[in-house]
Design goal:
The complex is a heterodimer of chains A (276) and B (295).
Chain A: E1 19-32, E2 35-48, E3 52-56, H1 63-70, E4 78-83, H2 88-93, E5 97-100, H3 112-123, H4 127-140, H5 156-169, E6 174-178, H6 186-203, E7 206-211, H7 214-220, E8 223-228, E9 233-239, H8 255-270
Parallel strand pairs in A: 3-7, 3-8, 5-6, 6-7
Antiparallel strand pairs in A: 1-2, 1-4, 8-9
Helix pairs in contact in A: 3-4, 3-5, 4-5, 7-8
Chain B: H1 2-44, H2 50-57, H3 68-79, H4 90-121, H5 123-136, H6 141-154, H7 160-183, H8 188-196, H9 201-236, H10 245-254, H11 258-289
Helix pairs in contact in B: 1-2, 3-11, 4-5, 4-7, 4-9, 4-10, 6-7, 7-9, 9-11, 10-11
The chains are: A alpha/beta (276), B mainly alpha (295).
């Protein structure tokens, strides 16, 4: 296996983490009735194992599209991507990632435990393995005791937690999250951000996280990818490791936090994200 | 609390409508049957007043419109008053019609679901079949029913199956349309989700499309079962059938037995109501098991 990131900036890091997601000069053009739309242009990005990478940018900057390319839900029109050293399709077939959508996307006719069982049934796991994975992952997202409830009996935040448990139950190497808390209110979002950080520390999974909230991105990430629209491209990559790994909620008032948040905002501005 | 709301929500509104219908029915019976009585009196050369005519309009042998109590008396007589095996028992005739309704409904449901599954999975079927399915329903059933009976008779099929075929012909349509819509109802997000699990097409069908289609299927089955009954009755009309509600209607109209016609009509209506209610109850039970939020 080769490490495309090795020769670039990642060289500075002392313990060399393996690159798990690598995009080289990625292009994606949608053909529409109004002519071609350049959703992604010249995207080159390396994500190392165990990193928490946020993709941030305004609507239409291609951040969700980039995530969907990694997940093999969209096909790039140029360039290459590798996920775990495989093509995205092979990675999808190997169930290398768990995907969390903007909405919880729980099946309304299944109870919470049966929803989490869904991917496990698809994988063909036996009942005992399913039961143990359901139990451990519900505990992980603090939803033990809600096994028999139907999704509508849970709040929006709890539903989203259940969908995270469902993604984790597959035991993937990485989590791809597409604005998972975008539809929730600020208070619930704060709470879930904190829980997600703990979860990440516990599971050590690589996370790619799409958001359009600056505080959320800074609070969660080890690395923030600032994207700009028309065509969707990477404007700047900001390192957040200075914040350390132990991040209580009130770290958001610290000088370092505000400095990085300012840097992200400047990056968005320079990338014409605030243009009319 | 729940008792009073049952009275307020169900019995009171339905009862009010029933009473209103009976009142209008009596009034119409008096108006429509009066000319015959006047005619009779004129021929006999006697002058009669309104209050002499009034009771007679409700006791004619072959009234233009029989009064409700005449119809209910006939209903009572032909259901409770006759042995079920008797050719004059309305229950016997209802059973004949019901059996072909249920068989046709079952066949129509299977056909409709099968068509929908094909249409959703193969675009060619969508393009080639859908126009024919719609066209099939624009042909008047009264025109095609005798043809079906004649053709099936020619190949040696008679009895229950030809009538059931007509029921099927009518009832597969709402099932096919509703089920197609239901199988296509999963959101893009849910389909993407199944893709991220690398689910096969058949896993996506059994675990996502089919359960998502169940509420649509229940709704279309309610429509389908009532028109399956219509199909069975229509199937009895052109064949000179000797048994079944359709046969009762036909015999009644041959001999001017309006009371018999109306009692068969009411029986058909009650049967339809019962069938729809049964599907509804089963549907609600299924929906509740599938976690549908109680209204």
């Amino acid at each position: 296996m080769d490490f495309p990131g090795e020769c670039n900036e990642t060289k500075k890091r002392r313990p060399m983490p393996e690159t798990v997601i690598s995009a080289q000069n990625l292009d994606l053009t949608f053909e529409t009735n109004d002519g071609p739309v350049h959703a992604l242009k010249g995207i080159t990005l390396d994500i190392a194992e165990g990193e928490f990478v946020s993709l941030i940018g305004p609507s239409g900057c291609g951040k969700t599209t980039l995530l969907r390319v990694i997940a093999d839900l969209e096909q790039p029109t140029g360039g290459s991507v590798s996920v775990n050293g495989m093509t995205p399709e092979q990675a999808r077939l190997a169930r290398a990632y768990g995907y969390v959508f903007q909405q919880a996307a729980l099946l309304p006719w299944r109870t919470i435990e049966d929803n989490i069982a869904l991917p496990l049934e698809v994988m063909g796991l036996d009942a005992a393995t399913r039961a143990s994975r359901i139990r451990s992952n519900l505990e992980l997202v603090n939803l033990a005791g809600f096994e028999k409830k139907f999704p509508w009996q849970l709040s929006g935040g709890m539903q989203q937690r259940a969908s995270i448990a469902r993604a984790l139950a597959v035991e993937p190497d990485m989590l791809l999250m597409d604005e998972p808390f975008g539809a929730l209110d600020e208070i619930v979002r704060d709470h879930l951000n904190e829980q997600l950080l703990k979860l990440w520390a516990k599971t050590k999974k690589t996370v790619v996280f799409v958001t359009h909230s600056i505080p959320e991105a800074v609070f969660l990430s080890t690395k923030i990818v600032v994207m700009s629209p028309r065509p969707g491209r990477i404007h700047q990559i900001i390192d957040c490791s200075a914040l350390g790994t132990d991040r209580p909620l009130d770290i958001r008032e610290s000088a370092e936090f505000l400095r990085i948040a300012h840097q992200v905002r400047e990056g968005l501005k320079a990338g014409h994200s605030y243009d009319d | 609390m729940s008792d009073s709301s049952l009275f307020r929500d169900k019995i009171l509104p339905i009862g009010t409508v029933v009473l209103a219908i009976i009142a209008i029915w009596y009034a119409a019976a008096v108006v429509l049957n009066t000319p015959f009585e006047r005619d009779q009196a004129e021929r006999a050369g006697t002058a009669v007043g309104f209050f002499e005519i009034l009771p007679r309009t409700m006791a004619q042998d072959r009234p233009v419109l029989p009064a409700p109590h005449q119809v209910f008396a006939e209903l009572w007589d032909t259901t409770v008053g006759k042995k079920i095996t008797s050719k004059r028992s309305l229950i016997y005739h209802s059973w004949i019609t019901l059996s072909s309704t249920l068989l046709g409904f079952a066949m129509g449901t299977v056909l409709g679901v099968a068509l929908a599954v094909g249409i959703v999975h193969f675009q060619t079927l969508d393009r080639s079949l859908m126009p024919w399915i719609i066209t099939s329903q624009t042909i008047p059933i009264l025109a095609i029913a005798p043809m079906i009976i004649v053709v099936l008779n020619a190949v040696g099929i008679s009895g229950l199956l030809p009538k059931a075929t007509i029921s099927m012909y009518l009832s597969f349509f709402p099932i096919a349309v509703g089920m197609t819509k239901g199988l296509r109802s999963p959101e893009v997000m849910h389909l993407d989700l199944m893709r991220t699990y690398s689910a096969t097409a058949s896993q996506t069908f059994w675990k996502l499309r089919l359960p998502a289609a169940v509420p649509f299927l229940v709704t279309s089955m309610k429509v389908a079962i009532s028109i399956a009954l219509v199909g069975a009755i229509v199937g009895e009309l052109p064949t000179g059938a000797v048994a079944g509600l359709g046969a009762r209607l036909l015999a009644g109209s041959y001999y001017g037995q309006t009371v018999q016609i109306w009692s068969a009509l009411l029986m058909a209506a009650a049967l339809a109501g019962l069938l729809v209610m049964t599907v509804d109850i089963i549907g609600n039970r299924v929906n509740r098991r599938m976690g549908v939020k109680p209204a």
